[in-house]
Records
---
Amino acid sequence: MQRIEVDTLARTFALKALLPAPGDPTTYPSLWDDRSLQVGSKLVYLTAGQVVVADW
């Protein structure tokens, strides 16, 4: 899974270290359908067609 760091002030992004795939794919959310983005102290998560915003 690719991690990307977003700098909203500089309007840039940087690729971070890859995260390994889980050993048992049934214990992890769908890698095809789910996406998340951390912006400052917030985590924006897209899953099952819904956007969820939470404190990181």
---
Amino acid sequence: MGLTTSPQGQLDGLERNESADLILKEEFGGREIARWSPSTPWTFKAIAEQLESAATVIGAHLPVAAYLGDVNLGSTEL
């Protein structure tokens, strides 16, 4: 999954959303397919690891977009 980052390598959408749920949605139709609530504030590394562990779910619903709360973090289409 491609995640959108700033020129400094920061994950776009992470700042001020560290405590929001990480959500996977189908690109077409927007149906939610997975949701995780953080036990500690999200980091870029933690989000990448969670998405890696969800590879089977992601693969079964392509194309998929990742959101942190309402903020789009990226897509399998990037």
